[in-house]
Write a structure and sequence with these properties.
By secondary structure, the chain is α+β, with helices and mostly antiparallel strands. It has six helices and five strands; from the N terminus they run ααββαααβββα. The protein is globular.
């Protein structure tokens, strides 16, 4: 793998915010200065990157907000804010078929739109080591089917319980 640096975050955030990349969660970056230039409400972008992001050194960057936003620290936990490796930009299609992560799990298998199986990375250097052997993620297009799987003991967790339940 490669080291996660401040640039890993800044590049990922700029990618996520850019209108041309059509990211569903682009609006998460709306409080960062320059968002209106990279993702205008109408018309074309007039900038390639968020002016409020600055790399200070290998491990430090700053984010200047365009207005006060009390939930900013909570927002940073959203998946839109994760750093991305160079491979993501170099060969996006290849990265999508075999994603690279940076946490306490490794990706054992991935079937786009269907499932992802994560396994504990025994050599993970961080303090937040996995406390289980792995996690199996399944994609459901219908929350009733997911709920039925949960109640029959085939799932441990769902994040979208049908209103009828």
């Amino acid at each position: 793998g490669e080291k996660v640096t401040a640039k890993s975050f800044v590049d990922a955030w700029n990618y996520g915010a850019a209108l041309k990349n059509n990211q569903k969660n682009a609006y998460f970056f709306q409080y960062i200065e320059g968002y209106d230039k990279v993702h205008p409400e109408s018309g074309s972008a007039s900038a390639e990157s968020l002016s409020g992001l600055k790399v200070v050194d290998d491990l430090t960057f700053t984010a200047k907000l365009s207005q006060k936003f009390s939930l900013w620290p909570d927002t940073l936990g959203y998946s839109a804010f994760v750093p991305l490796p160079k491979a993501f930009y170099d060969d996006h299609d290849a990265w999508l078929s075999k994603p690279v992560g940076n946490g306490p799990y490794t990706i054992e298998s991935y079937a786009k739109g269907s499932s992802m199986n994560l396994r504990k990375w025994d050599d993970y250097p961080g303090d937040d080591k996995a406390k289980n052997g792995g996690v199996d993620l399944k994609v459901f297009t219908d929350n009733n089917t997911a709920y039925t799987s949960l109640t029959s003991g085939n799932l441990d967790l769902v994040d979208d319980v049908p209103a009828s339940q």
